[in-house]
Amino acid sequence: MAKLNTEELLDAFKEMTLLELSDFVKVFEETFDVKAAAPVAVAAAPAGAGAAAEEVEEQDEFDVILEAAGDKKIQVIKEVRALTSLGLKEAKDLVDGAPKALLEKVNKEAAEKAKAALEGAGATVTVK
């Protein structure tokens, strides 16, 4: 294969769609065991593709969904109350009405912490 200079590489990238470029970056990262920073990927994208590049970025808001209370319903209600500002009746209603969203648009750390606490109490939880 002929060696390409920087201009030729940039011209090749300009011809690629955002999805093709994203796939290339993934293969590049795997091949060379590196992680490309998001600003580099956006800078290499063709002009006007900035909005589409944002959609490719990693999810930063998560919803914690209580799927089922399990057989330790009282423990699950206690955890729901600890994770939210709900009163006893509201927490019980939420647990009885599962599947229901418990936390919405929280960061990954809070979602994982809530999932671990609820699963520890015997509940079935999904993070989306």
Automatic annotation (TrEMBL):
InterPro entries: Ribosomal_bL12, Ribosomal_bL12_C, Ribosomal_bL12_C/ClpS-like, Ribosomal_bL12_oligo, Ribosomal_bL12_oligo_N_sf. Keywords: Ribonucleoprotein, Ribosomal protein. GO terms for cellular component: ribosome. The lineage of its organism: Bacteria, Bacillati, Actinomycetota, Actinomycetes, Streptosporangiales. Forms part of the ribosomal stalk which helps the ribosome interact with GTP-bound translation factors. Is thus essential for accurate translation. Residues 62-128 form the Large ribosomal subunit protein bL12 C-terminal domain. This is Large ribosomal subunit protein bL12. It comes from Sphaerisporangium aureirubrum. Belongs to the bacterial ribosomal protein bL12 family. Pfam families: Ribosomal_L12, Ribosomal_L12_N. Residues 6-52 form the Large ribosomal subunit protein bL12 oligomerization domain. Homodimer. Part of the ribosomal stalk of the 50S ribosomal subunit. Forms a multimeric L10(L12)X complex, where L10 forms an elongated spine to which 2 to 4 L12 dimers bind in a sequential fashion. Binds GTP-bound translation factors. Transmembrane segments: none annotated.
